[in-house]
Amino acid sequence: MVSPFYLLGVGLGLGFLLGLTGKNSKKYTSAITFVAFAFFVFFSISWLIPFALKQVTETLIYTAGFLPPFSISLSVGFYEAVFSLMINSLGLLSILFLWKKINSESNALGGIILVLFMTLNMLVFARDIFNIFVWLEIAAISTSGIILLDKNKFSYSAGFKYLLASSIISSLYLIGVVLVYFTNGTLFLNDLITNASGVTMSVTAVFLMLIAIVLELKPFPANGWALDVYEGANPAIGAIMSGGVATASLFLLYKFSPLLDNKFSYLFVIAGLLTFVGSNLFGIKQDKANRLLGYSSIGQIGLLVAIIGFRPFLGDKFEFIAITILVSHFLAKAGLFWLSDVIKQDNIKNWSVLRRKPLLLVLFGIFVFSLIGLPPFPSFFGKWELIMMLSGGYKFAVVTIILVGSFIEAIYLFRWLGYAIKLDFSELPEYKFELNKIIPVVIFGALVLGAGYYAGNLICLKTLNYIPLAFIVLLYFIDSLPAYIKNTLSILALGYYSYLILPNLYETDMLRFIFAVIFLIGGIITLVAGYAYKGKRQGFYPVALLMYVGLALIIQAQTTLEFFFGWELMTAGSYFLIIRGKKSIEHGLSYILFSIGGAYAILAAFGLIYAETSDILLSSLSVATQNITLIFSLLAIGFMTKTASLGLHIWLPGAHAEAESDVSPMVSAILLKAGVFGLFILMIAMGHNPEAEQIGLILGWIGALTALVGNLAAAFQEDAKRLLAYSSISQLGYILFGLAMMTHLGWMSAMVYSINHFLYKSILFLTIGAVVLKVGTHDMYKMGGLIKNMPLAFIAVLIGIIALSGVPPLSGFAGKWLFYNAIIDKHWYFQGAIVFFSGIVAFLYLFKLIYSVFLGQLKDNLRKVKDISVWFAIPIYILIIGIMIISAKPELYLKPLGTMISGFYPNGELSWTGGLANAPYGYWNGSGVMITIGIMFSLLFLWLWSLSRKAQKVKQFNIVYAAEAPQRPETTHISYNIYAGYYKSIGWIVAPIFEKFWSTMTEWIHSVSDFGRRIYNGNGQYYMTHILIYMLAFYFILMH
Amino acid sequence: MTITIDKIALFLGIVLMLIGLYGAFSLKSIIRIILSLSIFDTGINVLIVSLGYLKGRTAPIIDGDKVTVENIFNVAIDPVPQALVLTAIVIGFGVTALMLVYALKLYQSKKTLDINQFSDLKW
Amino acid sequence: MEFDFKKLGFTLLGLLIVLNWGLLMSAIMRKINARVAKRYGIPWYQPWVDLVKNYAIRSQITHGIMFYLGPVFRFSGGVGLFLFMPMLITAGGQWTNYSFQGDLVLILYFQFFGMLGMALGAGEGGHPYSAIGISRGLSQFTAIEVPMTLAVISLAIQYQTLSIADIVKAQQGGIMNWTMWTNPVATIAAMLSLLGALAHAPFNLVRAPNEIPIGPPTEYHSTFLGVLQTNAAVLHVVEAALFMNLFFGGASNWFEFIVKTFLIYFWSVFVGTVFPRYRIEHSVSWFLKVPLVLGIIAIIIFM
Amino acid sequence: MRNSFLIILIAAFAWFMYDIFSEYQTQEQLNKTAAYYNSNEPSEAGAANVVTAIVVTYRGLDTLGEVTVLFLATLIIGFILKNKAEKIIDSKYKTSEILETGAKVLVPGSLILGVYIFINGHLTPGGGFQGGAVIGSAIVLLLLADPNKIVSHKLMNFIESTSGFFYVVIGILGLIIAGGFLDNRIFPLGKLGSLISAGAIPLIYSFIGLKVGAEISGIVNNINETELTDKL
Q1: Distant-in-sequence, close-in-space partners of A673: CB < 8 Å, separation ≥ 6
Q2: What pTM value is reported for the model?
Q3: Which range of residues forms the domain containing residue D61?
């Protein structure tokens, strides 16, 4: 093993020599420094490999040939090697990134950076507490030097504040060191750990050292100086500070962590959690990119501090958790800071310029995802384990705090991502695409992906199939090919996947089979419409497939981890699908925030289950016996964010309405079923608990009210897709209602509704989407009379609305009929009445939809509109055939459903005599009714036709209208606000109370953020007092 | 409690620290803040040295007269704080120098040394 | 399955009876209305005359395929309701039509079949009044259905079945066994909602003769109008029959049937001649007050 | 308001310090580390000044760090105060006669004193830093006396860089041919108390002295030049 002193020798020696070189050799500085860093990295790897292969154990290295504590010693072990590798690779890439800058400045800059990184390595290795002080000071001084990379008034004042703060902090540390020496007679950390003196002075001394290191890590709220530095310094320096200095300081904390007794654990936990939540909260209001990155960085480090404080609870998972979260943060934050320097935009709204180079946008997305902890990035696994272990230790309050903090972080990160994806950038200045600046970002992007894969394997996610993800990456690389090629590939991939899993599922698990069909076959059908799009359709296919992969993973999941993994992938994919739409920026944000909130509720619930069963199998849900109400509620809320139940629905209308024409059916007809599937899983596993009955009652009411409010709101929409979106809300309300009954018939109806909703909502959204593509507006009152131009679309919508309304003989009636029987069976009369009332309200919007678009007066500007694209018509008519089949022969699917549900609820099932279904209260012969009505309808039609086949077709305005022939279709087409009278009488039901509630919440959080962050008033003197107050506050709280 | 020299030094060191802190927190001129921090540092250094004191002993330098190889164990004080304080002083010097240069540049950027004027970055 | 020609024959005969009774009944009601207004009124055979005239008109115009289909849907709705509703409950069971294919729920939802088709047909006519009438009709209908649904649920709890035939059977054996007496609250709620369903004043918003001359069928004439009139005759009787079956003990012979349906229908005409027309928001609100409360009480009683 | 708040804060800090030192007792005997140093240093490191041995050898890494701090400070100050303009002589700027004359007398003496202090660092109180500081003060005096005096940057840089470099080289040599990094026993220890003794300590201290002297002078020189250019 190479002695770390060679690293020191190379670093310092070269640093000293750089001072010797003259001005002429300036241009070689980068190259020299780069070579030095290459050595550093080489050293790190040469340490890491033997440790990773377990050939050697941790070794102490002495200076001057004397044993510690009498000489200074360094320690090299596996984690030291890991951290050193992280730090040095950051250094190497930083040099590459700053190549030109270093060459153009005096050679001092290269020397300072070299010394800084050498120092960071030493901080990792050093085991002597005074020596650590020296290196801390050197790190601080060299940092204050590189802050001045850009010499302007901002970096001067930031650097000065940094110096002020760090001088106070290091003084505190120094006092601590000296007192430790005075009381323990040693400066050797290992000595101190094994037998620290118990006298008060010694304890206080340790406290001082610890708090000083915590202060180095910029704890909230004593961190204004750090924020100012992040904002004022060059972003590349931010990368070094956030990735390098903070990483080394964190390792320092790790080294000291064996010193923690209970009291000090609290110190770390409180400081860390406070920072995690507080920093993220104050970041919400921030719109300057670098400062925001600073907030985020500080928050993440805070979380890590808390994790170190929790070391005793995390057991052997501690290192895994800490390193995955740290690595994600490290790679992502450095990458983001570098991106910030590449595009040179300080306002986050201007980050849309990233789209000039799609590669940069993808990298940005990767970094944001890995910061938030979405799969497949390492922090996902880290956070998962963290929550599981903390829950296992019954630290539920902490879990809540961590999830809240993560959520707050997601708010601003996703807002930022949304800006980058959506906002216009045509007015913004160009930026240079320098290869030396892009390569480091790309490398870190690739590393974070690789690390995710590695972490996933470590956590024994062997069953996890990475091939679909690899396929998505492949799709990304061929993104410049025409859309139809990618469309074909995607369909083939989904088809192949279906071929792989469907036959087996059909044999083993009917429930999963049905949902798999909805997800995968439904996916294929909706993808067919994609052929209608010309051009490349960049970015569409990877994200669409991401969603489908997530959905498929949910189906296949055996463990809660796999389930959550799939759930998050699906959320991510659908987020990108949704935000692709026009004007989708805010809807995308609210979608992802609700989804993430829901996902965290699910995560917390899984944690609770793990706490009790110490198992992550999905089946362990059913054996849980404690906290049932809480677990059940959390999971239900989590899934209900996806099904958009009342109160959690506000994201849906906009998200679905603004999405692209073929995306709307994907996210409405298919995606929402993921929530339904989740609820099924939940109730199958936990429905037997007595508590479930109580919650079921509440869920039933929520479902019923959702149905009512959704339908009423749909009736008052003028935008066709919004109308359908509200309709989806209410349909999902029915499903929730059916599920909540937890009886055979209730589940039958929920299942029937799920299948039917998939069919008719796909038809309606595809058709309306296709119409919108042709007419160029969503507003129904701007259409009208299109039946003559678009007969195909009209027929599709007609069948769709009849099926949706539940009018016999089409398939929707099956659900209504089952409902009646189920509610009487369950005694849920009032909820049931609300559901039926809302079912009738559906006629209002269904009529409005078909009438306003297809009937009435054709507008002048639409006279030449053609029928919908054949690529839309094909999937639509395939689905119509599906509806017709299950309408004519409902027993085809009702019987297998009944068999399946009998497995869960054997009582109250339907009995069949041929096509006649007998329920406890009623009976119904689906095919008989279909035949009767069919024959009668045909006869009557023939009769009327025989009587009036010679009827003369008249022109559009040939109507009896106050003895005038109207000339303008706009004035004659009654559509806008046609239910005004109805609104007057019961419009209060759809008053936007939930919208108001959530917007008030949002405003409130923002005001708190805006008020709170004023503590960072920019004055270095105040920052010094903050530091002292922080220290004293902890002292008096902990010690007294 | 007897008053010994180390206690006086200790007290003096703490007083210096307090004075330095108060100055650093209350004065408005950047130069004065730097000087106050310097005083604070000095206080700490005094404190360090006083902690190495042993009653009635002398410096750990073998001069062959008072202190010899044989008796150094019994007559010399603890050498470690002295070594540490040396390092601390030098580091303090480096930081102070750096701060002063910063002050110079700050002055050049705004023609003032009032710390309140340098809060462009905030929130 | 063997095709049952006898059943079909009885059903068609029943349809004929119902149609003619419906026409006669509408004539009687118009007569009553006229007499209340101190007019002489139409002769009793006027509906037949109208029908013949309309079917005979040769000049026919159409606005398109949906316009054409509207009356077909409407009439199918009327005939379908007839088909799925047992008319007379007799020992032989000849007059139960095709009610073995579905229960009360089927009836309740099949009502919409005709309404929806009519709405669409009228919509294609392009006349603004059609749309206004339909929007009112649908709005009002949602409100009507609230007390109706509650009453039906109350009945289903009471009789533990959703089969109309079974409900009728449960009411046999004396007038005091009728739902009217055993479940008066539900009956009242349902009868109030019937007022709206039959759309006489004060709930005749859909066709409101003096605001939106004749409502959705504005553009219909000749054969189309004839079909609609035929349907109206059937539908009114069938709806009255539904209430008869649910609340008034059903009928075991045609005489009882005629008397009961007449009285039920007369109830709405009676109210209509006394009250002026509501505005739509008032109508909706009205149904969501007293009838709603009654419906809730009806359920609470049987819970 | 703010002042009273500050007084409370300082009082709290004072209380904190009181909390720490309220149970302070003067030490009666050496702790184990100090005892080890005082008893073994003469034989192990061979320097008459125990503190020097600790500074240069036992805790040599700290000292290397110190040197690095100073080095960094010069580097950064040079980096901040980067002067592209040629040095301009401001002939109007004059200092007093006494200062000029005094400087002429004192500067050479100070330089020699500085060198003496660091060469004898292992024998007497003092050492590289102290000696370096004296040298630095001499240069400050020189510049005070004549601000227009040109002190060669190149020379300073050269002294600083080479002495720093050799310091590291000696450290690495220790790693290779003796017990560890910065081991002073790469040279024989010699007789305790003589000038050439204690192995590499005098050599290291000389490098440190040179380096510190050069650095301090460099810093002052840099600031001085900036002020000059700034005036014009």
Answers
A1: A515, A518, A519, A754, A758
A2: 0.92
A3: 49-231
% residues pLDDT > 90 (chain A): 63
Q: Judge C/D contact: 3 or more CB pairs < 8 A.
A: no
Q: Which residues contact C38 (CB under 8 A, 6 or more apart)?
A: none
Q: Which residue has 């595809």 as its token pair?
A: A766
In a domain, D203, yes or no: yes
**A573 HSE (CA, 13 A, CB side):** 29
**Touching C: A residues 604-663, CB under 8 Å:** none
Total tally of structural domains belonging to chain C: 1
* CB within 8 Å: C62 and A954: yes
CB-based burial label for A108 (10 Å; 0-12, 13-18, 19+): buried
Residue of B nearest to A1017 (CA): B122
Backbone angles phi, psi at A509, to 5 degrees: -150, 100
Q: Is C1 exposed, middle or buried (0-12, 13-18, 19+ CB in 10 A)?
A: exposed
Domains of chain B plus CATH, in order, are 5-58+67-117 (1.10.287.3510)
Do A205 and A114 contact (CB within 8 A), yes or no? no
pLDDT tens, position by position, D140-170: 888 888 777 777 777 888 888 888 888 888 8
Where b means 16+ CB within 10 Å and e means fewer, A39-59 reads bbbebbeebbeebeeeeeeee
C211, pLDDT greater than 60: yes
Of A489-493, D118-122, D210-214, the one with minimum mean pLDDT is D118-122
What span, in angstroms and rounded, lies between the C-alpha atoms of B92 and B81? Answer: 16
**Phi (first) and psi of residue A910, to 5 degrees:** -75, 145
Pairing of strands A923-925, A916-918: antiparallel
The CA distances from residue A343 to A81, A420, A573, A960, C227, in Å, are 33, 12, 26, 65, 72
- CA terminus-to-terminus distance, chain C: 41
Running DSSP on this structure, what letter comes out for residue A866?
P
- Looking at the predicted structure, is the pLDDT value of residue C1 above 50? no
Dist CA A403 CA A399 (whole Å): 6
Q: How many CA atoms lie within 13 A of A294 on its CB side?
A: 32
CA C41 to CA C46: how far, in whole Å? 10
d(CA D156, CA D159): 5
Q: A970: which 2 tokens?
A: 């706009």
Q: What is the DSSP letter of D110?
A: H
Query: Comparing A19 with A80, which gets the higher pLDDT?
Result: A80
Of B64, B76, B82, the CB nearest to D193: B64
Count structural domains, chain D: 1
Range of the domain at C176: 5-302
Neighbours of D200 (CB within 10 A): 25
ipTM: 0.88
Distance of residue D188 Cα from the nearest chain B Cα, in angstroms: 19
In angstroms, the CA A829 to CA A817 distance is 15
Q: What is the amino acid identity at position A116?
A: L
Helix (H) or strand (E) holding D63: helix D60-80
Put simply, the answer to whether B7 touches D54 (Cβ < 8 Å) is no
pLDDT at D93 over 70: no
- Look at B119 and A134 and tell me if their CB atoms are within 8 Å: no
